[in-house]
Write a structure and sequence with these properties.
Strand order of the largest sheet: 4-3-7-6-5
Shape: globular
Strand content: 25-35%
Radius of gyration: 15 Å
Length: 157
């Protein structure tokens, strides 16, 4: 997670250029998956990300991802990552633009803390903004979602 000095950002963004099999991820998503930040900024294959998904979840996560792309339906999965023997639970929410581009937000699920009503509503609003191609609103909502899981208080100036 990224500490901005004011709050911890605990969600990241992943974009998959499907036809070229290039996945781009921001620094938060790369670290969440235990991957090199510079490589993810330049692009890696989808298999690199799927390899980080815990074995019991991997097949389901991949099937749902491909199903979401094939049917142009929303993607929402919660699964475990297996990083160095420790399991981390994450949630991914996204959607494809035809069979060309898939983009999603990924957030770590803290132990014992699952989505509350506010976070569910923000995820729904994020999806609506994406459906309406409102990238500014989607970006702001992604930031808001990342703040909801923050353990640090916001400092308003």
């Amino acid at each position: 997670m990224t500490d901005t000095g004011k709050t911890e950002i605990n969600s990241g963004l992943i974009t998959w250029i499907i036809g070229q099999d290039i996945v781009l991820a921001d620094d938060v998503a790369a670290r969440m998956f235990g991957l090199d930040e510079e490589e993810c900024a330049s692009g890696v294959e989808i298999g690199v990300f799927l390899a980080q998904v815990a074995e019991p979840d991997r097949g389901r996560v991949a099937r749902q991802l491909y199903e979401s792309i094939a049917t142009n339906s929303p993607y929402f999965e919660e699964f475990n990552l297996n990083l160095g023997g420790t399991g981390n639970t994450v949630v991914m929410k996204g959607r494809s633009v035809g069979d060309v581009l898939f983009t999603c937000i990924v957030a770590q699920v803290d132990c014992g803390l699952r989505f509350g009503k506010l976070q569910d509503l923000c995820l729904a609003a994020y999806e609506a903004a994406r459906d309406e191609n409102n990238n500014i609103a989607a970006t702001q909502l992604a930031r808001t979602i990342s703040l909801l899981g923050s353990t640090e208080p916001l400092h308003m100036h």
